[in-house]
Amino acid sequence: MKKNEHTVDIVLTGPQTNVVIHHHPSMAGVFLKAFFIAPFRSNIIKENQVVKKTQIVLNQYKPDQDQIASYCKVCGFEQKQIKTIPISFLQTLFIGILGKFITSSFFPFNPLGLIQIFQSFELKRKVLMDEVLDLSCTLDCIKKTSKGFETDFILQVRSGEQIVWQGISRYLSRKKTITENKKRQDKKEDVFLNIQETIEIPADTGRKYARVSGDFNPHHLYPVLAGLFGFKTAIAHGMWSLARVIASLDKKFDLQDGAHVEAAFKLPVFMPATTTLGFESDNGDDNDKTIILFELRDKKKGLPHLKGQLFKNDRL
């Protein structure tokens, strides 16, 4: 382990293990395996535990145009540019691969104890629907923090030899206690952005997003299933929330040719819900790059669900 003031880096052992799969994993199989192995997995790593750097690869993927059109409709993207793939859709191609990863012997944590806390992705150029894509998902790093263990997966999409999209999915296997002082400090420092739009989130949003993304985590689908995981009702997918925000930003800033997005997931969205999207420009002295800060909040209480930033090179 490597230590600094705030975190402990868990050193992954090499050489890298490469696993090639030939089709997207069955999500039903992923969930069954997750429930089966959960009692035998921990939320922590022991001092001497060995974790290998591993990559799962799926080559020759052909995008489903009907699926992308349905995704655009569910997430609010305009369909006038239907020949191109939305920047956030490419993350959904990794849902099954990530599911296979976290239920494999290469991953040390309980898959049912993971919470996605961060997502970034960069679209390097416009990606067309008729392109054949190669996908790779790499377990890149694990860090021990005050809240628990954070795991980063590096996601990459290639067309031929060119990387056209890449992202980081970060998951937390958390400890049970967070100090109240920290909670109060976070709330005091919270700064609200100018509200640009009100977004209604119907109760069936989770089921609609599951059908177009493949993410059928039960707590997103029905209140009774969410109750089994300790939620009072079904919660929206964090990635739907981010996609819905990006759809609005795309209409204003046109992200089809390239952009970089970073987002931190905050409090869950209990459906149905009314939320507000706030965003502001924060370019500073960089005239060649558009920098947009954005957030999604509960309309009534102002509590944050999502915060992030978007970078777009205006010379693209």
Q: What would the CATH topology of the largest domain be?
A: Thiol Ester Dehydrase, Chain A
Query: Mean of residue pLDDT?
Result: 90
CATH architecture of the largest domain: Roll
Number of strands: 13
What overall geometry do the principal axes of the alpha carbons give?
A: globular
User: Helicity, in percent?
Assistant: 10-25%
Backbone structural class: alpha+beta
How much β-strand is present in the residues? 35-45%
Biggest β-sheet description: 13 strands, mixed
The span between the termini is 41 Å
CATH class of the largest domain: Alpha Beta
Under CATH, the homologous superfamily of the largest domain reads Hotdog Thioesterase
Protein described:
The chain contains 8 helices and 13 strands. Strands 1, 2, 3, 4, 5, 6, 7, 8, 9, 10, 11, 12 and 13 form a 13-stranded mixed β-sheet that branches. 23% of the residues lie in helices and 36% in strands. The protein starts with a strand and ends with a strand. The model has no long low-confidence stretch (mean pLDDT 90). The longest helix is centred in the last third of the chain and has 16 residues, at 238-253. The protein folds into 2 domains: 1-177, Roll (Thiol Ester Dehydrase, Chain A); 179-316, Hotdog Thioesterase (Thiol Ester Dehydrase, Chain A), CATH 3.10.129. A hairpin with a 5-residue loop joins strand 12 (289-298) and strand 13. It has helices spanning 27-37, 65-75, 89-92, 95-102, 180-188, 205-213, 223-228, 238-253, and strands at 2-3, 8-10, 13-21, 52-61, 114-123, 133-144, 148-159, 162-174, 195-201, 259-265, 273-281, 289-298, 304-313. It is globular, with a radius of gyration of 19 Å. By secondary structure, the chain is α+β, with helices and mostly antiparallel strands.
